């Protein structure tokens, strides 16, 4: 299945997909060394790269290079997401032969998902939320 200019998948005629759902995806831990600094909310945008078996193989920082605090938040993001697991993305291609009989071929494919990780302190307690 070819990827478009933005990297997203485009389904071919007669093709569908399923899967690519998180099995484990615990949020990152707020870096302990930054709690006492009482920093304002920080958001890290990351792309999680997943192989055809559903294993995370890379986590990329989508934000422009920033300060040491951002680097610490991204390290926490990277470390957590590298332990995530997904159901494989399965591509289903339907085929019709000359007699009108239908069959299908199933294959797995790598995929990526973009996330925003929000690090904040609420009443002095670290809270990290994740949105896709």
UniProtKB/TrEMBL annotation:
Top-level taxon of origin: Bacteria
Gene3D superfamilies: 3.30.1150.10
Start-end of Polar residues biased regions: 13-23
Region annotation (Disordered) ranges: 1-23
Protein name: TonB C-terminal domain-containing protein
Organism: Luteibacter yeojuensis
